[in-house]
Amino acid sequence: MAKDEPKCAFCGRSRSEVGILIIGPDGANICDECAKLCVEMTEGQGARRNAAAEPMTPAKVAATAAKMRTEQKPEPRPLKPIALKKPAEIRAVLDDYVIGQSQAKKVLSVAVYNHYKRLNDKLFGNAAEAESVPAGTPVGDELRGVEVEKSNILVIGPTGCGKTLLAKTLARVLDVPFAIADATTLTQAGYVGDDVENILVRLLQAADGDVKRAETGIVYVDEIDKIGRKGDSASLTRDVSGEGVQQALLKIIEGTLSNVPPNGGRKHPDQKYVQIDTSNILFICGGAFVGLDRIIGSRIGNKFLGFDVSEKTGATLSAEQIMAELQPEDLFEFGMIPEFIGRLPVVSALSQLTQKDLEHILTRPKNALVKQFRKLFAMEGVELVFEDEAVAAVAKKAIALGTGARGLRSILEKFMLDTMYELPNRGNVRRVVVTADVVNGLASPTIE
Fold this sequence. Notes:
CATH topology of the largest domain: Rossmann fold
CATH class of the largest domain: Alpha Beta
Radius of gyration: 28 Å
Number of domains: 3
Number of strands: 12
Strand content: 5-15%
CATH architecture of the largest domain: 3-Layer(aba) Sandwich
CATH superfamily of the largest domain: P-loop containing nucleotide triphosphate hydrolases
Number of helices: 18
C-alpha cells in the first residue's frame, strides 16, 4: 500500500481495502460501508431524535462499523477431510432421479470419487489417508510424494438427454459447494458481458462466502459448445464470445489464483476482489455439440454420395456408434481449441433417449412429471390417473418434436390446461382419468 494512498476518515481503511472511497476536501473521505452505516444510523435515530441526542462522531461510526463487520462475517468453519462416498453410492442416487445414461453415470461417479480422494490427500495428507485407505493397505514410500492431477470432464449429448439434470442431481450427493454456470453469457475480458471469473461467483455463494470451502467445490459449465470458433479461418474481427472465451477459461480450468468480484458483475479498478485458487475445483463442462456426429461420420467413412443411399454407404451407423468413435481432432474441427480440449481429459457421450426411456422419465423418478401433476391434483382432493397408453402417447410426441425430456412438461401442460382451469370451480370431482385420445387431442379428460 502506498503511503500517500487516501484513507477513509471514519474507519481508517485505504482505498485498496474498500469497495468505493468518496474523496472530500482536506482528507474528509468516506468509504461506501461507512456511508451506508451513516444513513442507517440517521434513519434509526430519526423517530427518537431530540435535543439530547448523542452526536454521530467519526469515532462512533468507526466503532459501529467495526462491530457490524465482525457480526456480519462469522469465523469460517474449519475444513475437515471429506467423507468419501463410493462410486456405487453416487450412482445409486443418480439412478433415483435420472433415467438411462449408464455410462455417463459411471464416469461422473468415478470422477467425483477420485476428486474427493485427491482433495483429502492434498489438503489433509496423512489424516485423510488414515480415513480413506483401508487398514493393512500398503502405501509405498515412493508414492507419498506423487501429486494426483484433477481430471475435468466434458459431457456431450443431444438436447433433453439429461446433461444438466445429472449435474443438478450431483448436488444432492455432494457435501461440497456446487454451482451451475452458463457459458453463453461469457465474453472475452474487456467486452460487455460476464467475465469468465463470474462462473466462480455462484460457487462462492454456494459456500456461503467461505473461500476455503469454495476452493474444494465443483462447477458445471453448461452450453460449452456455444463458445466454439465461429469459423475455420482467422476472422478479421474479434470473436469475443467464442475462441476468446476458451482462451480466458484455460487457466481457470487448469488451476490459477483468480480475482473474483464477491457480488458478481463487471470488474472495475477500485473494486474489492476475493482471491480463489481453482486448482482444487472440479470443472464439468456440458454441451449438445450439434453437428459433431456428422464430423465424426465423415472422418470414419460414414459418407453419403449420390442419390442412391443404401446400407453399404454406412447409413446404418447409429448416433451412439458414431459418438463412440469420438477423437480430440473432431472437437477441434467443431471449433474447440486444442489447449481447451487438453484440459478436459475425461469425455463422456450421452445417448439419445428412446421412447421407453421417456416413458420411464414420466413415471419412475422421484420427481417424475406424472407424480408432480398427481400431487397438484391431490392438493384439490382429486385423484389423477394416467393410463399407460397416455404415457406412451406423450413420449411419442416428444420423440416427434425432437426435444427429448425437455419437451415433456410443455406437452403435459398443454392438454391439462383446461382441466386445471375448471377443476377449482367444481367441488364434486373425485377422479380424473387421462387417456391416449386426450394426449392426441381427440377427447377431454374423463372427470368422475
